[in-house]
Description:
Helix content is 65%, strand content 0%. By secondary structure, the chain is mainly alpha-helical. It has 2 domains: 162 residues, Serine Threonine Protein Phosphatase 5, Tetratricopeptide repeat (Alpha Horseshoe), CATH 1.25.40.10; 89 residues, Tetratricopeptide repeat domain (Serine Threonine Protein Phosphatase 5, Tetratricopeptide repeat), CATH 1.25.40.10. The radius of gyration is 18 Å and the shape is globular.
Amino acid sequence: xxxxxxxxxxxxxxxxxxxxxxxxxxxxxxxxxxxxxxxxxxxxxxxxxxxxxxxxxxxxxxxxxxxxxxxxxxxxxxxxxxxxxxxxxxxxxxxxxxxxxxxxxxxxxxxxxxxxxxxxxxxxxxxxxxxxxxxxxxxxxxxxxxxxxxxxxxxxxxxxxxxxxxxxxxxxxxxxxxxxxxxxxxxxxxxxxxxxxxxxxxxxxxxxxxxxxxxxxxxxxxxxxxxxxxxxxxxxxxxxxxxxxxxxxxxxxxxxxxxxxxx
Length: 263
């Protein structure tokens, strides 16, 4: 959602956090994505500076939004900023107002569906995202978001189909590859997940989230030194080390990841 599109409230490790739910699901074979509210969150200087900028942007956009609630461009920009700040409920409210004002606008519906997915409103997100594009004019980002929602609802086969369709439109798109990698992580197919996440991270368009997810999978595989090196691209050495240590601690409490024979 990218969001990187759609897995943010799930089995996902942000650049400054290792999600305990992600590790538990990846190691334990959980059928659904977990809730990121249980994240292990070391201090992150760079991320804190970014958050300060985001908060300032959110305040500016809030003032503009309140002058004309539901206006499309400002609503989308404001909701995206709120989502980046993990203020998912507020993002949903903003896009809901915009959707009431423009109930057939596919761009509005797409952003509304992504906000709902971030907020964990999966059934409603699934419905809204279905209306955010058409079969004769599909959007790769919506397909990727639909795949993420399907993954979180435990429908792996549907998720795979959405991701593959997204890649037909946008080959090598790092957001889609990242979502596919996390889907494989849920199935404990870690070598395959690593391959996709390396491909995603190699893209010039890849951001900290993709690199963080690659570092997570490497740590789950026991490749701790490389995981730290990749994490240090976006974190300080101390923060990167703390994240890897968190994976080690959680991994010790669960069964070892099963490697895929095809990996």
